[in-house]
Specification:
The protein is α/β, with parallel strands linked by helices and about 290 residues long. It has helices at about 25-35, 55-70, 85-100, 115-130, 140-145, 150-155, 170-180, 195-200, 215-220, 225-235, 235-240, 250-255, 275-285, and strands at about 10, 40-45, 75-80, 105, 135-140, 160-165, 185-190, 205. About 45% of the residues lie in helices and about 15% in strands. It has an eight-stranded parallel beta barrel, surrounded by five helices. Helix 1 crosses helix 2, helix 3 (about 85-100) packs parallel to helix 4 and helix 4 packs parallel to helix 6 (about 150-155).
């Protein structure tokens, strides 16, 4: 079996912005310390939750560099890469390597999308370049492209591919992927399926919820399955509220209620609606998070 880069929970981190919309590095550094103090197993910088689509390459590099510097080798740092231009993804992976990242989380091509055969060629080219170990990221709700289990099967033995983040939200598809790729580490990309994928042999999760409550996500990914399931059920309503609007709108709202960042996003994302924010705050109070 491919040795997992990590087992347990990686946080797909938000990128904090100040009131002028600039990257807030002091807040980012404190946020990283908060994650590490709560035992998180890895950190993803500039994944979907970090709003990289609205960053310049210099800003993307700034966040990644700051994350690597603050972590100081204590856990793996995974750089969010991926895109619809294979050559550009390879170039970005090389830059991430030079900035000290341990691996890349590479989302499937969006907009131009490609075929399943194109996905095989795309990921093979990135893996063969060898800049960074590669975790494939399947999130069809974002990209409009679903990577099928047979496609994962075709890539399972490609050197340089070290894992799969499955975020289709389809438990049956996740089971099919687990069956096809038993030797390839599988991570949940859907917080509501964290424990289910563990039960199928998954290595853990790459989580949005752990931005807010990393300790609970640690429990979901490390406790015995029956105990972990009880933790997941406890937080199911919160998970639903954190995805009732486009991620990272709700998680930034939740973190701002806790005073961990400002509730500032970059257009076209806008702050959470008042009605949903009220429901989110009420659930956080019910759970004792506020």
């Amino acid at each position: 079996m491919t040795t997992p880069l990590f087992s347990g929970c990686a946080t797909a981190m938000i990128t904090p912005f100040d009131d002028n919309g600039k990257i807030d590095l002091p807040v980012l550094e404190r946020f990283i310390d908060f994650q590490l103090e709560n035992g998180i197993d890895a950190l993803v910088a500039c994944g979907t939750t970090g709003e990289p689509a609205c960053m310049s390459e210099d800003e993307w590099a700034c966040v990644l560099k700051a994350t690597v510097r603050q972590v100081r080798g204590r856990v793996p740092v995974i750089a969010g890469t991926g895109g619809n231009n294979t050559a550009q993804v390879i170039r970005q992976a090389r830059l991430a390597r030079d900035l000290g990242a341990d691996a890349q989380l590479c989302v499937t091509p969006y907009y131009n999308k490609t075929t399943q055969e194109g996905l095989i060629a795309h990921y093979t080219a990135i893996a063969k370049d060898g800049a960074l170990p590669l975790i494939i990221y399947n999130v069809p709700s974002r990209t409009g492209l679903n990577m099928k289990p047979d496609t994962f099967f075709a890539l399972r033995d490609q050197q340089g591919i070290i894992g799969v983040k499955e975020a289709s939200g389809d438990a049956a598809q996740a089971a099919d992927i687990a069956a096809c790729c038993g030797d390839l580490p599988l991570y949940s990309g859907s917080d509501e399926l964290t424990v289910q994928l563990r039960a199928l042999g998954g290595c853990g999760t790459i989580s949005v919820l752990s931005n807010l409550i990393p300790q609970a996500m640690q429990e979901m990914t490390h406790l015995p399955i029956a105990e972990a399931a009880r933790v997941q059920l406890k937080y199911m309503k919160l998970i639903r509220l954190l995805f009732c609007e486009t991620n990272p709108i709700p998680i930034k709202a939740a973190l701002s209620l806790k005073g961990r960042c400002r509730n500032v996003l970059r257009l076209p994302l806008v702050p959470m609606s008042k009605a949903n924010l009220s429901a989110l705050e009420a659930e956080m109070r019910r759970l004792g998070i506020l």
